[in-house]
Design brief:
With about 170 residues, this protein is mainly alpha-helical. The chain is built from eight helices and two strands; from the N terminus they run H-H-H-H-E-E-H-H-H-H. A two-stranded antiparallel sheet has the order 1-2. A hairpin with a 2-residue loop joins strand 1 and strand 2. Helix 6 runs antiparallel to helix 7 and helix 7 runs antiparallel to helix 8. The longest helix is centred in the C-terminal third of the chain and has 30 residues. The chain is globular and about 40 Å long.
Length: about 170
């Protein structure tokens, strides 16, 4: 699936895939919004705003969510349980960022002063490798796109959540 990104809108923009990717993800917040939908299972604007550990401003969040929807990385629809709320879901191109998040987390673990409770998820992603990433992407497809994952497949999301909760419990003990 090709993102809805028109590189021809700026004649000075390079056609380099790295440059074009940075045009999508190079701001401070886009990957954080996707991360919070992916790992935090936050689906509503208020959840994304209140759950932001980094303290994103509401106007910035609104701008980023709108941009990610326009680019085809997120979808938005009325929440069937509450007609005045909008539910956001990851689109396939965002789900395919799981290996990128795994590599970013692994790099951060090696080179930056990360917190213990967040380190354990990054370590699980790195150690699990492509097999774990595939399971996680299958589960994200089920949660966000309604595509059933293979039967009997253990929950990668559950493993990530359990590792995080165990690290939180350990830190508070």
């Amino acid at each position: 699936m090709m993102l809805r990104f028109d590189a021809s809108a700026d004649p000075h923009r390079s056609g380099c895939p790295i440059n074009l990717s940075l045009e999508v993800f190079g701001d401070k917040w886009s990957l954080i919004v996707i991360r919070d939908l992916m790992f935090g299972d936050r689906r509503h604007f208020r959840e994304l705003l209140a759950g932001s550990e980094e303290g994103i401003a509401s106007n910035v969040l609104a701008d980023r969510v709108q941009r990610l929807v326009e680019l085809g990385l997120l979808t938005r629809a009325p929440d069937p349980g509450h007609k005045q709320k909008i539910v956001y879901r990851l689109a396939e191109p965002a789900i395919q960022l799981v290996p990128v998040f795994a590599q970013l987390g692994a790099w951060g673990n090696r080179h930056l002063p990360v917190s213990h409770e967040l380190r354990v998820r990054a370590e699980l992603l790195e150690q699990g490798g492509p097999e774990f990433w595939d399971r996680f992407m299958d589960e994200l497809r089920e949660r966000h796109l309604g595509i059933a994952r293979p039967a009997g497949q253990p929950s990668a999301f559950g493993e990530l959540r359990a590792a995080y909760e165990a690290a939180l419990a350990e830190a508070s003990a």
